[in-house]
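User: I'm writing a tutorial on reading structure tokens. Could you give me a worked example: one chain, its sequence, then its tokens, then a sentence or two explaining what the tokens reveal?
Assistant: Sure. Here is the example chain.
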Amino acid sequence: MLSLRNLVKVYPGPVTALRGVDLDVPKGMFGLLGPNGAGKSTLMKILSGLLEPTSGEVTLDGLDLVRHPEALRPHLGYLPQEFGFYPYLSGQDMLRYLLELKGVSAPQGMKALCAQLLERVNLTFAAKRKVKEYSGGMRQRLGIAQALAGDPKLLIVDEPTAGLDPEERQRFYRLLAEVAHERTVLLSTHIVEDVAMLCPRFAVIRHGRVMAITSPTEAKAALHDTLFEGTVPPADMAAFQQAHRVTQAVLFEGRNRVRIHAAPGTPVPPGFERTPPTLEDAYLLLMKDAPEPRAPAPTATPAPASAPAVGA
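And here are its predicted structure tokens:
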């Protein structure tokens, strides 16, 4: 179990990126969903040992990772949002280089370990191909291969599907779902579909605060019989948004299709019909309800001195 208690991060300025985050992440896949700038990447860097919190606690199976960040390394796999590869190395040579940097032990030899990892992420066919020739999805799978080395207890993946085409995204979903059976996987994303496809539970974060902890099924069930859809002329849209809680407005076949949330007993505009809620509806309503931060940065006691942070 990964546990966070009252986690705060204040950057010089001051800029408060995290405002007292409390979270328990069990074994399996868990999502962290929020817009850009919500504090997700700061949280991922703290959990991976790359950044110290201003205050708060982080424990993994009872191990204090704030006081002893060096103890995290044997248990962590990390795929950051931006991963730098040497384009002219082959996939197998790039992977071997990364594993040697991480100090991963290979009792049967590094070549054999690299072959096993490439097979696991379905890249054996491209092992000798230069990384510059890899697609975006292949690069992400290579990143997962290095993250899985050492059989980590905790795997952190930060915005892993950004930029992938639909086919590559589906392949990556299957790979993440497979590896999550054996460990805790924390998926940080701003893409609602990622959470809907992969995560039995997830937290929504905005302005450095956890707004909700729920499941896709629970989030949609909470909106049962409260979502309606209809057409609104573009010229009337501004006034319509002032009068109704609009979750989405998209063009469909050249028409402006609008989805609104109307609590029981609330009048529904003529021509609007009840429609099943989606996870995106639930997420967008949470974003609308999230209060803007008004208070100054929280006063925090600096985290205890520790050894230098250790990356993945």
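What the tokens reveal: The longest helix spans residues 166-179. The CA atoms of residues 117 and 145 lie 5 Å apart.
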